[in-house]
Each structure stands twice: as C-alpha cells, then as structure tokens.
Amino acid sequence: MKWGEAMTKCMSVLGVTGSIGRQALDVVRSNSEELRVIAMSSYNRIDELIRLVEEFHPQYVAVRSPEQAELVRAKCPFTEVGHGEQALLTAASLQESTLLLNALVGAAGIRPTLRAIEAGCDVALANKETLVAAGDIVVEAARDHQVQIIPVDSEHSAIAQCLQGANREEIEKLIVTASGGPFRGTSVENLRQVSVQDALTHPTWSMGAKITIDSSTLMNKGLEVIEAHYLFDVPYSDIEVLVHPQSVVHSMVQFRDGAILAQLGTPDMRIPIQFALLGEKGRLASQWKRLNWSHISELTFEAPDYDTFPAIKLAFDCGRAQKTYPAVMNAANEIAVWAFLEGKIGYLDILDIVQRVVEQHQPESTFGLDEIFTADQFARKTAQLLIAKRGQKV
Ligand code: NAD
Ligand code: MG
Q1: How do the pLDDT tens digits run along the chain, 394 residues long?
Q2: How many angstroms separate the CA atoms of 365 and 363, rounded?
Q3: pTM, rounded to two decimals
Q4: What distance in Å separates the CA atoms of residue 270 and residue 123, rounded to the nearest whole number?
Q5: Which protein residue has the closest C-alpha to ligand 1 atom 6?
Q6: How many angstroms is it from 5 CA to the middle of ligand 2?
Q7: Which CATH class is domain 9-152?
C-alpha cells in the first residue's frame, strides 16, 4: 500500500442522493486524498445513484428493492449490490470503513447507526431523528464501543467547534439558533391557509422536504434541542433557542465566566459536513463561498413565538419526560409531515396530530430498543388513524 493511500479515510455514506448526501460527495470530491467512499445507499433516484457508483466505485451499494438492485447491477457489474434493510446495515458497517455518514431521513437511521457503532466505526450523524428517538441507547453504545458521534447538523457542528479545548464543566448554556422559518411573524389564523409550496420555501437553507417542513413548524428546532442534549450531555434547563433570521450565527456556547463563543459562516452545509468528515485532519482549505460582511446589514435575535409554534415546547416536554416520549413525538411528526406533503391534512394539523399522539402515549415500565420501536409503531399507527379521520385536506 502506498503512503498516500494509508492516509485515506474509508467511509460509508447512507442517503447519498439526498440533500446532505449530495453535499457530502462534493466534500469528498474536493478532499479526494483524504476521503474515499466505499459504500453508499439510496432508496430513490436510481439513475443518479448509478452515476455516483460509476464516479466513486464503491465496493458495496444498498438500494430499496430487488428491481432497483438489478438496475444497478446491470450498469455496474463490479460493485456488489444489496437491497432492503439488511443491505443498509451491511453498507453501514463494511469492514474497511472507519466512518459512517448517516444522511438518511427519519427513524430508519437508528439501526444502521447502531450497526456502525457495533462495528467500531465513528458516525458523522446528520440523521437527527436517530438521536431524538434513541439518544440514550446510541450514546451508551458509542461509549461502550469507544467510537465518536460527530455532529453534522450546522447548529451542533457550531457548538462542537465552540467547545474545542473547553471543559464540560465550563459550559453555562448552549444557545441554539433558528432561522424562524418562512412563517416567522405569521398569525395562527394565517397559518391555517399555508400550502405545501409555501411551507417548502425556506428563507435561508436548501434542504430535503421533511426537514424543510420541520423548519417551518419549528419542530426541527425541537428535534435539535433533544439532539444537543444527547450530543453534549447538557441538561434541558441549560439549552436555549434563539431566533436569528439571517442564519449567519450557527449557534453559540455561553461559558460560566459569562463569555460567549459563536460560530459563523454562510448557510452552506458543506462547511459542517467537511468539518465532521475530516475530523482530526482539521480545517483543510475549501472553495465554498465566503461570508461577505459588507452585504450583511444586520444580525438580529429574538425569542421564539412559542404560542404560534408549539413544537419547541413540546420537544422540551418530551425530552424531559424521557423514556419513549421523544421517539413517539418523532414518529408521529414523520407521519404527519408526509401526510401534509401528500395533501392529506392541513398545515396546522401537523402539530395537532403530534400533540394528540404524545398525549395518548403510555410508556412501558422497562426501557430499551424494543420499547423504542414498539412506541414508534404505536405513534405511526395512531397518527395514521387521526389522519384518516380528518379525511381530505380541509
Ligand atoms: P433527503 O430527503 O434529501 O435525503 C434522504 C436520503 O435518505 C435519500 O437519499 C433517500 O433515498 C434516503 N431514504 C429516505 N428514506 C429512507 C429509508 N426509509 N430507508 C433508507 N433510505 C432512505 O433528506 P436530507 O435533507 O438530506 O436530510 C437527511 C438528514 O439530515 C435528516 O435527518 C435531516 O434532518 C438532516 N439534516 C439535513 C440538513 C440539510 O441541509 N438537508 C441539515 C441538517 C440536518
Ligand atoms: Mg440544523
């Protein structure tokens, strides 16, 4: 093996055709000496996946169905292709891989994350739903197997960057910033009329459909509060959400002496993705667009409107209630968001359904992965029943 090859990190990327997956491959393209993709997965956009296999030559590819697998095999005979959840787990934990980038959307990311951890891989985690639904289990598994969970989400990457060289005891609070979404300042009455297209138009970030809707309801910030709690082991009482519409300050840490550190930059996910993937290799040069200070006339901050957007408070409550409450909130939200995107329910129904499902949840006295998946299934079924009762979009 040549010296240069020995320095290359072999990694798996799950969700390679998604918003984060595509941007991650951009990062790999511009750091090809440091990073090599040896496994990838996608559950849709098979033509794009085939082009990526031809470009990156991974050893293993996971797709959803046998038909998709045949399509990929026909074009890429030198790559092993599997389908279904087993294939996803294989892709997450190839023997040569030392890093998994989990860019799946939803609780589908839990098992692949755990499989990679058990295989001794570090996990760069974009898939926040994993930590929300199974934070206790994932954090404990990472500790047991001595692997790192590296944040990819811009807020958590910002916090991790602010915490470099700091002691945990020095943290007074984490300040998680939020753009406020496209409906900041809108009344509840006006939210009733919101269309799918309105909700898919994010003011500062370009992302996948589910997280874009979550950003508009502020559920995304609720999920991120729980994510921050698990990533940084900080109690909920020491996590604050602050609306910052310009999305320049990506989050902050306030220390016990009163000093505050913030991380700033353009709203470009490739910056936190590169930071996560390069890890110990540090801050290598990038070509992404720089922040132009002369174009920024103001940076403003305000408290979230908790009455119009109840998701953040619900997430704090579910996070504090622990057990399977966060998993139930997350699963109900996934179902409600997809139902809204399919035109089955109105915009305000999303949070209404999530709240109702959480109210109906009765956690079991024991707690583990089985209970999390049972609660997840309960939430999905209950949410679907509520959606069916509402009939067509009002
Ligand atoms: P996306 O919808 O653009 O991509 C999701 C990917 O996952 C696709 O490749 C799809 O094929 C695959 N996929 C979907 N459902 C699957 C399933 N059940 N099993 C296996 N594969 C499946 O989503 P995204 O915007 O890239 O977001 C991915 C994750 O990263 C989410 O958890 C999101 O909250 C988080 N995140 C995204 C951004 C962003 O800028 N897009 C920023 C921060 C965090
Ligand atoms: Mg974020």
Answers
A1: 444 445 899 999 999 999 999 999 999 999 999 999 999 999 999 999 999 999 999 999 999 999 999 999 999 999 999 999 999 999 999 999 999 999 999 999 999 999 999 999 999 999 999 999 999 999 999 999 999 999 999 999 999 999 999 999 999 999 999 999 999 999 999 999 999 999 999 888 889 999 999 999 999 999 999 999 999 999 999 999 999 999 999 999 999 999 999 999 999 999 999 999 999 899 999 999 999 999 999 999 999 999 999 999 999 999 999 999 999 999 999 999 999 999 999 999 999 999 999 999 999 999 999 999 999 999 999 999 999 998 754 4
A2: 7
A3: 0.97
A4: 17
A5: 15
A6: 33
A7: alpha beta
**What order of strands is seen across the sheet that includes strand 171-178?**
239-243, 171-178, 249-255, 260-264
- Residue 25 Cβ contacting ligand 1 at under 6 Å: no
Pocket test for ligand 1, best of 13, 20, 102, 113 (most atoms within 8 A of CB): 20
Distance 128 CA to ligand 1 centre (A): 10
| Distance between CA atoms of residues 224 and 214, nearest Å | 11
The residues spanned by each domain of the chain are 9-152, 155-266+292-317, 322-394
Ligand 1 atom having least distance to the Cα of 214: 34
99/12 Cα distance (integer angstroms): 6
Architecture of the domain spanning 322-394:
Orthogonal Bundle (1.10)
